[in-house]
Amino acid sequence: MTKAQKQILDIFEKNGGALPSFREIARQIGVSSTNTVSYHIERLRKNGYLDIGRSPQGMANLSLKTILAMDAKPGVYVVLCANKPFYIGSSTNIRKDIIETIIGVDRSPFPQVVDKPDELSIAYHIIESESERADLKQYLTEFYRTKGIDI
User: Can you name the CATH fold of 57-146?
Assistant: First the structure.
């Protein structure tokens, strides 16, 4: 087990079996990349050290079944078509927001829903703090912009 993984386990235990956002973990363990945090958490899970049940983040195919199975919690989400992001949302209830925005009657802002529904997916991160949601949404928008993807 690496030093970073031990630190993540300490954070997990101190938080009563829950993990804060990847950005917060990165800050606490002194790394700059949330991908590094994701890697270490995945290694801990695979090796049986970490069992956090329902993940506060993830990626799933976007279907009515998936949306209805989601917890009605606050967070940030990115809708992708053929693995390319086209919408970033921040909500106090991700499930409700997705249903109203993506599955709702007015589909005109999202032609991908009509054209390629089988290629839609959603990446999400459950975040309670409104300011952290705003920070993550801004970060993602800027990140995609640097990659030439304007959302």
Answer: GIY-YIG endonuclease (3.40.1440)
